[in-house]
Amino acid sequence: MRRVCFLLKVRQDRLAEYRRRHAEVWPDMLAALRDTGWHNYSLFLREDGLLVGYLETNDFQAALDGMARTEVNARWQAEMAPFFEDLDGRHPDEGMAPLTEVFHLD
In this entry, which stretches build a coiled coil (predicted)? Predict the structure, then answer.
């Protein structure tokens, strides 16, 4: 299982709404994530808008590609895009650049 960590930046004026939306993630979105290989997925949000994502998956590119093929992901990404800074027209899932793991305590 590969561990993946990524960063995004939530707009300061959208933090409360971003939190609310993630307290109510659509059931079909949750099912799509599970079905496409996203495991142990967490999002952590700092008060300045820094968002840290973490997940475990067998193949990160396959997990991204699987989600890209779902209708629910297209709807979710379109609704979430306005919450983020510096996406340059991309959807949030296209802006996820995995960080390099430099240490892991097993």
Answer: none
